Amino acid sequence: MKDTDTGGPTIYLKDYQPFGFVVRDVSLRFVLHPTATRVHSRITFAPNPDATAPRDFFLDGEDLKLIEARIDGTPVTPEVTAEGLRCDVPEGEFVWETEVEIAPDENTALEGLYMSNGMYSTQCEAQGFRKITYYPDRPDVMSVFTVRIESDLPVLLSNGNKVATGEGFAEWHDPWPKPAYLFALVAGELLNLPGSFTTRSGKEVELNVWVRKGDEDKCDFAMEALKKSMKWDEDVYGREYDLDIFNIVAVDDFNMGAMENKGLNIFNSSAVLASPETATDGNFERIEAIIAHEYFHNWTGNRITCRDWFQLCLKEGLTVFRDSQFTADMRSAPVKRIGDALDLRGRQFREDGGPLAHPVRPESFKEINNFYTATVYEKGAEVIGMLKRLVGDEAYAKALDLYFDRHDGQACTIEDWLKVFEDATGRDLSQFKLWYSQAGTPKVTMSEDWDGATYTVTLKQQVPPTPGQPEKAPQVIPFALGLLDPSGKEVQPTTLLELTEAEQSFTFKGLKNRPIPSPLRGFSAPVILDRETTNEERAFLLAHDTDPFARWEAGRQLAKSALIAMIDGGQAPDAAYLDALRQLVKDETLDPAFRALTMALPSEDDLAQTFADMGRTPDPQAIWDGREAMRGAVAEVLKDDLTLLYAANTVTEPFRPDAEQGGKRSFANVILSLMTRQDNGDAARAQYAAADNMTQQLGALSALLANDLGSLELGAFADQWQGERLVMDKWFAIQVSHARPDQAAQVASDLTERPDFTMKNPNRFRAVMGALAMNQAGFHHASGAGYKLLADWLIKLDPLNPQTTARMCSAFQTWRRYDADRQGMIREELERIAALPGLSRDTSEMVGRILE
Ligand code: PHE
Ligand code: ZN
């Protein structure tokens, strides 16, 4: 393929060159105005002694109106292009000054400085700073920033510590050198929930959660989560906070979850605001995790940052890994692990198995925004989990200490990261490094042999071909295995097998009977396990396994095979599965959250992929019908138990957003949805009417809608919550997710006609279009209406917000699984998008890769 086939030039990791100059300091002055903000910059540059190429003074800059430029006080006339400017500069150190004008109010891309509901906010990662002023906008250029903001707005925030403030201005100084992508500015009529934290060395840190008026009652949880995160990072990683103040701001219009700007984290309001009435248990858990994630970036991302954007997983993989550890500590570790496995399989395996597959550390890109992916984040975190499993907890801690010691204040690479582990442990990690460079989910085939005395496990691995990588070498796979004897007793506790070759055998001696293996315990590696087994064996593991992940997995496999048999062969629901389920739901020794997870059926997408893996063409409607029939059968089998189970798990104490109560509520909601099939909605209506929290209210509404009931409640919900944007997002989404396959596109389309639908707010857009893409049978309905509607809206959104448009194109990434008719319709939509004049680089790259 030519470099410029779609969306402009390709950037390669191998072409990395340091910038020709270092930045000694940066001083910025903002005179805020919605349509004519003036940005003055004063930057001291000096030649970079480490530069390899001839020095080229090129500064990135996009959509900027250059008013003037000076070098050492003398006006100069740089050569200005759409991407930046170039100028002749003196030999030694010099002071560069510019004044530019920008229009935050016209910035709908939500990158750079933009306005959201009357407040000013910034988003600079990855390359948004170049929309604020001319600068070497790359993460390896780090500097100390001083920022003066001039505006009549009462709250003016930037990074670092506040050094001066007065009538109409505020000045901030950040003593820690940082790349421009961590710059942030916020200005508005905001209210704060204040707090404070004393670090372990006795330093008092001022904390604030800043929100718009009306949201001040929804900050407590975020504040508590922040304090817990600060404490946890001290206790577990020995990391202390390093400024006098830490600010969190909630903004309504935001492309992602949140952003770790130094000392001034900016959050999508959906990732901060929560009260029992407006947020579900799932929302609370997500908020806690994102607050932690952004806070943890202070060390893994900010103090130690990335040399270039190919190294994104250096900060993201590690920080996701750290926030998973945190959630496991704060809540239930097994439930978190199962959730992570579900998420990885649902999003990352899907990506890894299709046209968008790329290594955890990509080697080329056109638009870096397209690489904030499940692979970089979640597989990046799994790779660190494997590293920890392989070297052990102690060595991991030692390596991390060395990492912080050795690289504090630097912009690093994956090589630096792995070197730290090699130096700390003496281990050779060259084969392990393949996890960073080879895309695709390894498939591990397991077979066993028993000769009456010795049990032999043989593991074979195969990494499938992916775009640009036809052949793969074997990777290092930590494979955790336990063995049970036929009575259900564990005879071999979890053992870590290290698979390094294409095929390898491991033997176990001293066993009396042929054991039943419990493979891939704890989901010890992000691989697809292929092993011949029986439903009896799965039921056995579901009943006896000591490893919660493996136990859940056995239940899931059982459900899957029962569903496939129903969808495929028109068989009745498997009795062994229903039987196992009935035992499990009543097992009081099991955490209700675990029971809820085990009862959840494999998703439509998961089943579609399973068919594709069997070399078959999935039929979305048949999959939908099969799941419906299975739910009916489960409800029928459990019908005498439902009322009791529901009562036993209904929380009556005052709401607490913790794992214990949340687990009960999620289990009760699962039971309620089954009851709704039996009682015509009586129990769900009662729960809806009595609910004093969003988990129960939404759970009841969802149970009703899933059974074509609840139109009254749906209307009442909108009346009650019309003033709450985040709750209304749920209202939009739930209707689309529960729409029947033949109606989903119409329901979504009707919702877009409402005055409170706006594509300028990514949350609202995703509530409708994201929900449509997730409603598999609806999206893939044979009429093609789902494809067309999504494409129509992506076409409308692209000129306004390329980033969100491009992300949502991934709804089409599984297209090659489907039949010729569907493939034809999808291709047509993708080509319609690709052909648009002026299509963004973001969307153009995505569509190009999906079609390739
Ligand atoms: N760096 C952010 C995070 O992972 C994500 C992000 C990327 C936000 C790009 C905005 C834009 O925490
Ligand atoms: Zn992150």
Q: Keywords for this structure?
A:
alpha+beta; 5-stranded mixed sheet; 27 helices; 21% strand; globular; binds phenylalanine; metalloprotease; Peptidase_M4/M1_CTD_sf; EC 3.4.11.2; metal-binding; zinc ion binding
Strand content: 15-25%
Quickly give the structural class: alpha+beta
Globally, the shape reads globular
Biggest sheet details: 8 strands, mixed
Order of adjacent strands in the largest pleated sheet: 6-5-9-3-2-12-15-14
| End-to-end gap | 10 Å
Q: What is the helix tally?
A: 27
Pick out the low-confidence regions. Answer: none
How confident is the prediction overall: mean pLDDT? 97
Bound compounds, each kind once, are: phenylalanine, zinc ion
Q: Count the strands? A: 31
The proportion of residues forming helix, as a percent range, comes to 40-55%
Q: Rg, please?
A: 27 Å
Cofactor: Zn(2+)
Domain Peptidase M1 membrane alanine aminopeptidase: 221-432
Domain Peptidase M1 alanyl aminopeptidase C-terminal: 536-852
Protein name: Aminopeptidase N
